[in-house]
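INTERNAL TRANSFER SHEET
From: sequence group
To: structure group
Subject: adenylate kinase

Please process the attached sequence and return the structure record in the designated field. Keep the field labels unchanged so the import script can parse them.
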Amino acid sequence: MACCVNYISPPRASLSPPPSRSSFSFSGDAVHSLLRRHSRSPSIVAPRFQVVAAEKAEPPLKIMISGAPASGKGTQCELITRKYGLVHISAGDLLRAEIASGSGNGKLAKEYMEKGQLVPDEIVVMMVKDRLSQTDSQQNGWLLDGYPRSSSQATALKGFGFQPDLFIVLEVPEDILIERVVGRRLDPVTGKIYHLKYSPPETEEIAARLTQRFDDTEEKASPI
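Return from structure group:
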């Protein structure tokens, strides 16, 4: 752990004037190495170090973000994860990945989806819990995208010890949401999302292969 120390110069007149009393950061191993190196030289008296405070590392940031489809979660998640170095965890992507990998939770989820049923909360919660528990999430912090969506899901995550430092809710007027949704297109080759008005494809070749997702309609975007 890094520490903040006071440097006290050795009391020898033969040495050049020491620096003024100051504080600086160092590692414990570096200090021991310095002391050993100085002690082997008969012409130098090893300096003394006095620890005055220990610097506590800030815990990794934990964020949850929520918003309606086309509210801009993808853009905000990209900006936030890039700035803070967080692990971006999307519940939807996680569900698809678990199914593709054939994990136990993935197989259970696939059974429900093949029957046209919603995947039970307890299955998705376990997927999210397992991902949040992985080393990269614990060390770097995480940004949980689009989850939880209900109080029961939030309560379940809290029961496992996962609680955010910050919960972001993106609020966008309904008419703008509808415009964003109906103009949104997917590139099936790269997975990139375009918008016919705000973010059109770079080439005619890309434009020709774009598809519209089944739920990117005004009916799906409008609140019930």
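Handover comment: The first helix runs from residue 28 to 39. Confidence is low (pLDDT under 50) at residues 1-46.
Transfer complete.
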